[in-house]
Amino acid sequence: MGDSFSRREFLKRAAAFGVTAAGLAELAGIDGPAEAAARPTIVVASKKDPARLVRAAVNGLGGMGKFVKKGDVVLVKPNMGWARKADQAATTNPEVVAEIVRLCRQAGAREVKVMDHAVDRPDSLILRMCGIEEAAQKAGARVSMASSAALYEKVAFRKGKAVTSADVMRDLRRADVFINVPIAKVHNSTGLTLGLKNMLGIVWDRGAFHSSSSLDQAIVDLAGQIRPRLTILDAVRILLTNGPKGPGRTEDRNLVVAGTDAVAIDAYGASLFGMKASQIGHIRLAAAAGLGEIDLKRINVRNV
Amino acid sequence: MSDTDDAASPQPGATGGAPSRASLVTEAGGGEGARRGAPLRGARRISQLVFLAGFLLLFAVAAYPLKSPVPVDLYLRADPLLALSAMVSLRKIVLGLLWYALPVTVLSILLGRVFCGWVCPMGTTIDISERVFRMRGRKRSKDRLEWHRLKFYLLIALLVTMAVPAAHRTTEALGLTQSVGLSAVYLTDPMATITRTFTWVGLPAAQWMARMTSDTVTGWSYSDFLGRHPALDRALAPVQLGLGAVTRPAYFRLGLVAFLIFGGIVALGRYQRRFWCRNLCPLGALLGVLTWAGGKLLPYRVRLAVSDKCNRCMRCVNECKVGAIGQETSSSPTDPKRAGDTLLPHKPECIECYSCIAVCPQHAISLTAGYDASAREDELRLDRRRVLGAIGAGVAAVAIPKSSLSVLRSGATDRVLKLSSLRLIRPPGSLTEDEFVTACVRCGECMKVCPTNTLQPAVGEGGLEALGTPVIVPRAGPCTQPCNLCGDVCPTRAIEPFTVEEKTHLYLGTASVDRSTCIAWAFGRECVICDEACSYNAISQDVSEAGVKRPVVNERICVGCGICEYVCPVEPLGAIRVNSSGDRRHLGREEQKLLRKRAGQEQAPAERTEGAGGEGPAQRGSPYPGI
Q: What percent of chain A has pLDDT over 70?
């Protein structure tokens, strides 16, 4: 990835292409030329086994090979923010992360890095407790926490309203592919935390986002600048109360949602909580900023 | 380690030992005479290195996830002075302390101060430092001042301080008032000093050095590089694990003080070798007393003997690390050169290093076992006035070093309230304040094991008497919820073991929101990251007319772990801060548990969560209905 402009443009085009191609594939049942109306497709896989869920969802988008090329370096960003056990649904399901790593490896990725910047302390305890370290390492990834300012580099948000720049994980900037893997949770500040909110873990000074003029707008500023190639939402078990850290009431939904349109994923994610995405400030602002489709009626939801 | 290697030229046919004693090291005999004694010294050096390595190994594994087949605080537990201090000053017998202290105690009674010469990591570190810095002490006899007995007076003063009632422990739940002593052994105990120095100085230094090689500093992608070389990655894994989190090196705010004290101890070697061990170390004094007692109790002993081959060349006197040879006797003032005075090593001072055997050109010194006719020479020879002075100093020390005021508060039961800083936040499981300050030996083991670096040496929080004791500094890190390591490593049980589940009702303090600086309260903007991060769901939200969520602390659920203060984006001190007003150690664990249960029951059922208590019927009859 060269400078931020070309990369961003590239991602935009890639996303647009993926979206349109998938939309037509949905209509025709086969791959074919793009249809004019760009309706983003998201795939909702519903099965028991998290690994099978991930495979089904990614295959529904055309397989990992569409996103990861041979020799690519992939950065997978799950939620490893809290010293909680996997079954407390405060962190991404480790089997989901591990399966994504495996699929990337099978697609020929040279290296898969699983990274986050935790709120909680200490990193060693979080990595071990949430189970992602062990599972993803077994699957062939390097798992680490970016817990030093030197691991970040400054990125200007040219369209930023609340935040005009931020230090973003260097490994992410240098990766060929960025896959965002949030877990669906309620959030006591932003209402819900899904894909867009999960992005906050790629910046060094999170405090600057919180103390900016608007946290919701700051999240959108970041999401407008750094866009994942693929978002895979873990809704195997979701957290219904006391989010984002819990402990709270959880519910097993056995779902994994995958797509290239981050806003569409979040719009669907909100429905899991019986909410409209427009009720969630940062998702509404993201849609208004043109970052994706918020209207579920205008999204192709493929259930597999 | 810093012995001279000026071993003498071979002197054939040397045998030593008093007629009534069987020599233990004469089997070499003949032309191998020059090597006689050297094997013992070699064995001692190996022993020193092995025990130092063991100490460092246990020090390294005193970290999350704390997996060690032996207690990581083994060396501290084996120290009889620390066990004595904890038990005398707290007026209770702790069997767990007694068992571990027994081996060194028995060893000293039977064989003398073998611990000092062969085991003590402090002694070994001093030996190594003296060798590295080529410090050999001064040779001229007029400089050989006899300060040996200073350590005995120091020990007496310390013991008196422990015994005199210095404060009162109040257990409100039981309505009991009981005295506790004041312990000052932390000042000079070698195990506490060396562990503290390694924690406050050695650990940060090692981690900073490790960090220099990592990509967090160089910018060059160390992790990428290791990713491409899995074999190297695997090989380096234990090193990285041993050094802990190199991305966030530990830091301790009294590091400089520990460094200067330890540097001073080493520097004194310029004046006398092992100056610390021979003149100051109260553990050495205690073991010396045990050695002396052993001489009284056991006529049959192992000791060094000098044969009549001795030609008073003074090599052993100059070589002796602790100046144990040629001391004045009870009968005459010192002059080792004068014929007739004994050159026998003074048993309570001798650290059994056996360098004297190795350097003696006459092979006149040998290790023998048998009836010990020399035991009567081993008197401690303490000066009566100085003993009285030490006792007086010990009593005075109870009154003088406290810098925080205590006032009597009357209530259901009278309680002594210590007027200390709002920031005096103790780790979970800590004894009540006066007991804690007494029991804590400032070894720093809890700070070493703490994975978030929140445990810091107290600077002013608890007054001068609490200098160096552990306090939680939330801005440095939270007392992270799933961790109970500090309670597992405390050698004197100043922090008693506790479970992670108990942390919901071990009230360390209470967080309070500073509404004049809080982003939500003062400026009307969304934030509540404190609520996000709270591990105990102790923060709820007050929604303003404009719809802004503002944090409110439920002080009955908040235990004061400090994660809210840690994550608060308001610089530099945070707009939500933990203070010690919520410290409820005086209530004991059961009553605190009850409080937590009540708080859980009063929460609306919809808000009740796992781990928030509330199970079981309400219990009646607590003296604290309103808390």
A: 88
Phi/psi for B371 (5° steps) reads -65, 130
Residue B275 lies in a domain: yes
Which of A189, A193, A282 is most worth mutating to test chain B (most B CB atoms within 10 A of its CB)?
A189
pTM of the model: 0.83
Q: What is the DSSP code (8-state) at residue B173?
A: T
**B610 contacts on A by Cβ (under 8 Å):** 247-248
CA distance A152 to chain B (A): 9
Which residues face B504 on adjacent strands? none
Q: Does residue B367 sit within a domain? A: yes
**Chain B interface disruption, residue of A82, A120, A193, A219, most B CBs within 10 A:** A120
Contact A116, A123 (CB under 8 A): no
Are B109 and B300 within 8 A, CB to CB?
no
Residues of A with CB under 8 A from a CB of B: 83, 111, 113, 119-125, 128-129, 142, 144-145, 147-148, 150-151, 171, 187-190, 206-208, 210-211, 213-216, 241-242, 244-249, 281
Q: Rounded distance, CA A288 to CA A285, Å?
A: 5
A83 to chain B: which residues are within 8 Å by CB?
A: 480-482, 535
Residue B110 included in any domain: yes
**Residue A21 belongs to some domain of the structure:** no
- CA–CA dist B255, B453 (Å, integer): 13
Mark yes or no for CB contact A247/B611 under 8 Å: yes
pLDDT tens by residue, B390-406 = 999 998 887 777 777 77
ipTM for the whole complex? 0.82
Q: Domain total for chain B?
A: 1
**Range B554-561 average pLDDT:** 94
Q: Tens digit of pLDDT for each residue in B423-479?
A: 999 999 999 888 898 899 999 999 999 999 999 999 989 888 899 999 999 999 999
